[in-house]
Design brief:
With 390 residues, the chain is of the alpha/beta class. 36% of the residues lie in helices and 14% in strands.
């Protein structure tokens, strides 16, 4: 599993900067700039009659390109500006207020199970549906870093409609154990939604092998696609079941027919569209997707594990507190390092053009991606030695 030899030459900004922040925003591919130029040319030369059909075909192809990274069948991945919009659309397709049929013996399925360590944006989306009859069930954490798998499974009951999971926690980098949770959800007849924003592009997984109903993610982290290109995978067997109320004219089977309500949903992944799509965000993101797909996530993962293990060991040798799992098999692609005045040190690192970030309770978050070198890890460690001693 070898990475492409020319990989660093395909990214801008990484020669002038030490880019150790791909867990927050990946480095920009040079081909992303070319994609914007092509988009402008299509806009200028084709006009609406020529541009829109081409752009919608590109949207479908970009979705399929993401699908190839996560093991999804063609036609099962849709795009949107961000994951919050897609989760809102998904929630709007569920009926939390429906009562079971009389005499059925079934409980009302209106509970949304989610983790206390879920990213706030998604927690905001799902808890908002309590206004529509849902009941949010928050699975607590004891240490603000982990949640026992059996605790998540125990929260799933015959009243659970949907289980919303984070593949890895943004506070700690801890990977969750998905199969037993999916198995429990299946027993309870609950939908499983995996937020894979923190792992896609650095940690290999397969949505079919994991038997997921829905997975969501974005492009601006490990996929190196910049902001503006969220995505959703829906298991093909379920696709036609959903009729999102968060919708728009591009979710119509033929948007340019301009038909009056009720909407006739598209039969493909565009049924998850809303209003006019943000085409520039999609086409720019494709450049990063293409590189990740070409390199292969297993090779990226092997490179990442080697460098983050080196980083973890160096931090522990110096007595710095490492808040991510020391065992690489239990963490995603970054290492959390806490030292005195970590927030202040962050600004000094950025002044030296070493890009990392900081989260309260975690410390400095430092990552390695396919373009990261051993020398860059050494530069970070040497600079930290200087700043911690100061």
């Amino acid at each position: 599993m070898n990475l492409p030899q020319d990989v660093r030459g395909r990214f801008a900004g990484i020669d002038a900067n030490t880019w150790l922040v791909s867990h927050s925003m990946g480095a920009p591919p040079t081909a992303a700039r070319d994609a914007l130029v092509r988009y402008h040319a299509e806009w200028a030369d084709g006009g609406p009659e020529g541009a829109w059909p081409a752009w919608l075909d590109q949207t479908r192809a970009i979705g399929d390109g993401i699908g190839a990274i996560i093991g999804a069948p063609a036609g099962s991945v849709a795009l949107a500006p961000n994951v919050s919009v897609l989760q809102s659309a998904l929630a709007s397709a569920l009926d939390f207020g429906a009562a079971p049929s009389t005499g059925s013996g079934q409980a009302r399925k209106n509970e949304i199970v989610y983790e206390a360590l879920q990213f706030p944006s998604l927690a905001y989306v799902w808890t908002a549906w309590e206004r529509a009859g849902a009941k949010a069930v928050r699975v607590p954490t004891d240490d603000n870093r982990t949640i026992p798998t059996d605790r998540i499974c125990s929260a799933i009951t015959d009243r659970t409609a949907v289980v919303v999971l984070s593949h890895a926690y943004y506070q700690s980098g801890v990977l969750i154990d998905i199969p037993p949770i999916v198995a429990r959800a299946r027993e309870a007849g609950a939908l499983v939604v995996l937020d894979a924003y923190q792992t896609t592009g650095t940690y290999p997984y397969d949505v079919v092998d994991l038997d997921l109903d829905v997975a969501v993610g974005g492009s601006h982290k490990w996929l190196c696609g910049g902001p503006g290109c969220g995505w959703i995978y829906v298991r093909p067997a379920l696709a036609q079941r959903f009729r999102p109320m968060v919708t728009g004219w591009f979710a119509h089977r033929d948007p340019f027919a301009f038909e009056p309500p009720p909407i006739d949903y598209a039969n493909d992944q565009l049924r998850w569209a809303t209003g006019t799509p943000t085409i520039p965000g999609y086409v720019v993101a494709k450049a990063g997707h293409d590189i990740i797909r070409e390199a292969g996530v297993p090779a990226i993962r092997a490179h990442n594990v080697r460098l983050t293990t080196r980083l973890t060991e160096a931090a522990l040798e110096r007595g710095w507190h490492v808040n991510t799992p020391h065992d690489a098999e239990r963490r995603t692609g970054w290492v959390g390092i806490d030292v005195p005045n970590a927030a202040g040190i962050l600004h000094q690192l950025i002044e030296r053009r070493i890009y990392v970030d900081h989260r309260p309770g975690c410390g400095l978050r430092v990552s390695a991606h396919l373009y990261t070198t051993d020398e860059e890890i050494d530069r970070f460690i040497d600079t930290m030695d200087e700043l911690v001693r100061a």
